[in-house]
Each structure stands twice: as structure tokens, then as C-alpha cells.
Amino acid sequence: MEEMESREELRKWAERLRESGKAIIVEGKKDKASLSDLGIDNVVTLKKPLFAVVEDVAEKTKEVVILTDFDKKGKELYGKLKKDFARNGVKVDMYFREFLQKNTRLSHIEGLRRYIGNLE
Questions:
Q1: ∠ CA 73-62-112 to the nearest 5 degrees?
Q2: What is the pLDDT along the chain (120 residues), one digit of tens a residue?
């Protein structure tokens, strides 16, 4: 992807995520802050045990976006969360995560704001 195009694509990605209104699951405060800087505020951190996060979110919504990091731990968390949400009747929207994996070199969500900023 050419740089100018990738910046625009990422901006559209952030806008779609913001407008989706879906709960977005991230690992920690820095991830949440990075998304918040992009105007995305429907973010839930994993500050409670996973089952509690899943139950709380499942009570409020039927579709989520999981943006855990792309390292080993983040991938394991993603797999577990995806399974737990499915068990609770919550659909996982994979578009946003897959977009980042295919179109960026990001490994940690907390770097997203800086990554987009570096393209600008």
C-alpha cells in the first residue's frame, strides 16, 4: 500500500470503528488512550478477569471488536475472548483486527495513534 493511500485507509478505518458503535476490547489503559486519541471511546479494557469482562459486555451488546496486541500473549487473549464471546452469544467483528494485521506493521494497539501520526 502506498503511504498516502495507507494514511487515508487508516483514517477511514478509524472512522468506521468510531461509527460502528461496537464495544472494542483492548488489553490495557495505553491501548484505550491510543484509541481515545482517535476519537474512539466505546473501549473496554481487560482490567477484570476475562469471564467478567465477557459477561459485562454480553449484557450490553451483541457484537464486539477485539483489538488485543499481535504478540503471542495478545493472540492467545484474542482466541480465548473470541471463544468466550461466542459462548455468550456475542458476535466478534474481525474486520478491524484483520485490517490492521494486513495493512500495518503494528504489533501493539497502543502504538496506533503514533503510527497514524507518523504517516501524516
A1: 40
A2: 455 557 788 889 999 999 999 999 999 999 999 999 999 999 999 999 999 999 999 999 999 999 999 999 999 999 999 999 999 999 999 999 999 998 888 899 999 888 877 765
Q: Which domains does the chain have, with CATH numbers?
A: 3-119 (3.40.1360.10)
Contact 14, 40 (CB under 8 A): yes
Q: Do 65 and 23 meet the contact criterion of CB atoms below 8 Å apart?
A: yes
Best CA proximity match to 69, nearest among 101, 22, 42, 37: 101
Predicted TM-score of the model (pTM): 0.92
